[in-house]
Structure formats: C-alpha cells, structure tokens
Write a structure and sequence with these properties.
The chain is an alpha+beta fold. The chain has helices at residues 22-31, 48-59, 96-105, 124-132, 163-173, 189-200, 232-244, 260-269, 306-313, 334-339, 368-380, 391-394, 401-407; strands at 2-7, 13-17, 39-42, 63-67, 70-74, 107-111, 136-140, 143-147, 155-157, 179-183, 204-206, 212-216, 225-227, 248-252, 272-275, 279-283, 292-295, 319-324, 343-347, 350-354, 362-364, 386-389, 411-416. The chain folds into two domains: 2-19 and 230-416, Enolpyruvate transferase domain (UDP-n-acetylglucosamine1-carboxyvinyl-transferase, Chain, Alpha-beta prism); 22-227, Enolpyruvate transferase domain (UDP-n-acetylglucosamine1-carboxyvinyl-transferase, Chain), CATH 3.65.10.10. The chain has 13 helices and 23 strands. It has a four-stranded mixed beta sheet with strand order 21-22-1-23. A hairpin with a 2-residue loop joins strand 7 (136-140) and strand 8 (143-147). Bound molecules: uridine-diphosphate-N-acetylglucosamine and phosphoenolpyruvate (PEP). It comes from Paenibacillus filicis.
C-alpha cells in the first residue's frame, strides 16, 4: 500500500492536460460488447477502474489490447458467462455488464456491484427497466439473474433521475425489438457519449442528454472507433485546486460547457475564470466570499465535485453551506478535514463550513472524491507534510495525479505506507 505525501503552501501554476472521462470509459467499455466486431476507444484514461474492466471483458472471452490511451476490444468470441464474484465486486460500473450482456445474449448473471462505498447505491431503477423490456430478474445468493426470451421496447418512467439506470436501459434496449422511451432520464454528458458510441455502432438512439431518450432497437451492431469525452470531474478538481492554492492554471482539453455550474460558483466566490474553446484558465485570488452550493443532477453542480469543493470552501472568509441532493450522506471526508483543523459541521444533507486555515495531519481517503478533497486541502497547508492513505481510491479516478501536480509546481510524492 502507498500513501500520498504533500508539502503544501505553493500556488499551482502552469497547464494540466485532462484525460478521457472515467465515468464515460466505464460505460463505453461494456457498451462495446454489444457489437460482434472490433471497437476502438481513444482518449482512454489510465485508471485502475479501466484495468479492472479490461479483466472483466477478458474473463468473458473478449480480446482486449490497451496501449497508452487507446483500447481495442474484439468481442466476437465473448460469451455470457456467470460473473457472481471477483472483479464485478470491485467497481460500481460492473452493473453495465447487465444491460450489455442482456442486450447481446438475452441473459446475464452478475454479482451485485461494488465501488466507492459512501452510501447505499440502489439499482432498483435498472431492474425496473430490464423488467419493462420483458426480462425476468431474480436475486440468487447476491447475484442478479436476468433473462429474456425476447427483449421488447417499452416506455419506462424513472422514479429517480439516474445516470446508471439511463445508460443500462439504453444498452439493453439498443438490441430490443421495437421502440423504448426512457422518461425522466439523466442528462449527463457521459450519457451522450455512450449514445454516440452506440449510434456509431449502428444503434438508433435519439434524445440522449435530454429527459426523454428514444431507442429504436436494431438486430445487430458492428465495430467502430470512438474518442472519449474529457473528464469533467478531473478538470473540475484541478480548477478547484488552482483556486484553493491561489494559483494560475490552464486546464486544457476540456469542454467548458460541461463545467458551467462549477465555473459559475467559482466566479461567485471571486475566482477569476477565462474560458477558451477547449481550455479554462483559473486565476486564484487572495480572498474569497463564502457561497452556498447544492449538488444536483446535471446540469447542476456535480456530486462528484462536492467533496473537492468542501476543501476550497474552508478558504473563504465566511460560512458556506454545501448540500448534496444526489447522495445525502456523501460526507466521509469531513471528519478528515476536521482532523486538519477545518471548522465543519454536518447537518442532514448539508455541511456547514466556516472559513479558516488548515494544518497538516495524517488523514485517510475513504472514497475517490474524498481523496481528492484531502489532496486539495493538503495543497493549501503551508507548514508540515500532509499524509494521505487510501491512495488506491484516488487511483480509481485520477491518472498521473502526482506528475500533473508536480508539473504545476506542487511538492507531492508517493511513499510506501
Ligand atoms: C445524477 C448523478 O449526479 N449521478 C451521479 C452518480 O451516478 P450513479 O450512476 O452512481 O448514480 P445514479 O445517477 O444512478 O443515482 C442518482 C440517485 O438516484 C438513486 N438511485 C439510483 C439508481 C437506482 O436504481 N435507484 C436509486 O434510487 C441513487 O441512490 C442516487 O441518489 O454518481 C456518479 C459517481 O459518483 C456520478 O458520476 C454521477 O454523476
Ligand atoms: C464514486 C465515483 O465513482 P463510482 O460511481 O464509479 O464508484 C465517482 O466517480 O466519484
């Protein structure tokens, strides 16, 4: 096991290149198996979740070649083998194998997914969708058995706006007979990315990115080449880190529109932001106003940026209220920030954050974005060294983190724990 060491207090300065989006990649890789011929994914991030997904596809019989930021997936020999345990339990997104295998073979046996455990992550809406398409679903010894003689298009109204359910239903419906309409669908950019890949494979999907997605099922899908969208959460994390360290950073290879909720909030605090076509420059200021932030479904403020944002809010000169309306208990990073001297109280789905300087401490990342929050906090601390354990969570979502931060002038390194 390794730990991350940060001697903070240095403003980040320079340019950081953002890789492809984790939350797209972990849906696009399973989506590729709906095809019977080779799919090439470009702009792939070098993340542990991607490595685990590669193994999952290989266990199912696919041939996968992953070189730098490109993955070549040949799913022609893939079979729908039961996957009750093992790698499926290591990541939340293994649940996309349910929709993909169901779409291609009419059956899937997949263990209940794992992933970052900040609070329960139900999949009832995914199951409701599969059932509406004509599948029979049963939970046997912790694995879902999903079978359909023939998937048939249906109208599905999601009770909650869910990224995972929207994508999973799209995957299965892509090869159903007839038309499926998903109402109250999630609108995240990663959903558009999956629909773009599927359409390039020959699917007929319209409306991805709106609350109504229409999928006309087709008999077969073929290979294609697709480039993954930039990771808006990594980009947002570097933007927040630049502001928190009073730095001056160009975050490059981004789609600025995907970051609008964050940009607006940073501007409200007093951070200077300059948007260009594919990059955003963030210029930190000596003092910031406190603000209230509500994490919501897209295009609202992303729940994945809520934890990193909490560290920045400790740098204001007032009291901020940070609420999460997607995951009401996603606050496991708060006790660790308090260990670093932050004055934060959690009340219901909100953290009440009083501005003030932080100090170095030994802290633990308990999930991916909690880890990002602690990195940002550590970067702001001028005295001493912050030690962060639980680096394996951070590796799920931030590729080349140490190199990127060092290139921006930070003093950060990894050590054996
Ligand atoms: C809408 C939203 O912001 N989704 C985020 C969520 O996606 P993720 O796909 O994990 O979560 P969903 O979008 O599916 O869930 C949104 C909400 O719906 C609830 N729910 C979901 C599915 C279901 O079957 N039943 C149910 O009740 C969840 O508990 C949650 O409160 O976490 C990901 C990783 O942190 C983020 O990248 C996504 O942007
Ligand atoms: C928690 C996250 O990932 P996952 O949903 O894949 O566990 C995240 O991206 O912040």
């Amino acid at each position: 096991m390794e730990k991350l060491m940060i001697a903070g207090g240095r403003p980040l300065r320079g340019t950081v290149q953002i890789s492809g989006a984790k939350n797209s990649a972990i849906a696009l890789i399973p989506a590729a198996i709906l095809s019977e011929s080779t799919v090439i994914l470009d702009n792939l991030p070098a993340l542990s979740d991607v490595a685990i997904y590669t193994e999952l596809l290989e266990e199912l019989g696919a041939t996968v070649r992953w070189d730098n930021d490109q993955m070549v997936i040949d799913p022609s020999r893939l079979v729908s083998r039961p996957m009750p345990n093992g790698n499926v339990k290591k990541l939340r997104a293994s649940y996309y194998l349910m929709g993909a295998l169901l779409g291609r073979f009419g059956e899937a046996v997949i263990g209940m997914p794992g992933g970052c455990n900040f609070e329960p992550r139900p999949i009832d809406q995914h199951i409701k969708g599969f059932e509406a398409l004509g599948a029979q679903v049963s939970n046997e010894n912790g694995a879902l058995h999903i079978r359909a003689k023939q998937l048939r298009g249906a109208k599905i109204y999601l009770d909650v706006v869910s990224v995972g359910a929207t994508i999973n239903i799209m995957l299965a419906a892509a090869r159903a007979k007839g038309v499926t309409i998903i109402e109250n669908a999630a609108k995240e950019p990663e959903i558009i990315d999956v629909a773009t890949l599927l359409n390039a494979m020959g699917a007929k999907i319209k409306g991805a990115g709106t609350e109504t997605v229409r999928i006309e099922g087709v008999d077969g899908l073929q290979g294609c080449r697709h480039s993954i969208i930039p990771d808006r959460i990594q980009a947002g994390t570097y933007m927040i880190a630049a502001a928190a360290t009073r730095g001056d950073v160009i975050v490059d290879n981004v789609i600025p529109k995907h970051l609008e909720a964050l940009t607006a909030k940073l501007q409200e605090m007093g951070v200077h932001i300059y948007e260009m076509d594919e990059s955003i420059r963030v210029v930190g200021q000596p003092e910031y106003e406190s603000v209230d932030v509500k994490a919501l479904v897209y295009p609202g403020f992303a729940t994945d940026l809520q934890s990193p944002m909490s560290s920045l809010l400790t740098q204001t000169r007032g009291v901020s209220i940070l609420s999460d309306y997607v995951y009401s208990n996603r606050f496991k990073h708060i006790p660790e920030l308090v260990r670093m001297g932050a004055r934060i109280k959690v009340e219901g789905r909100s953290a009440i954050i009083e501005g003030g300087a932080l100090s170095s401490a030994k802290v633990k990342a308990t999930d991916l974005r909690a880890g990002a929050a602690l990195v940002i906090a550590g970067l702001t601390v001028a005295q001493g060294t912050t030690e962060i354990t639980g680096v394996e969570y951070i590796d799920r979502g931030y590729d080349h983190l140490v190199t990127n931060l060092v290139n921006l002038g930070a003093e950060v390194w990894r050590e054996k724990d």
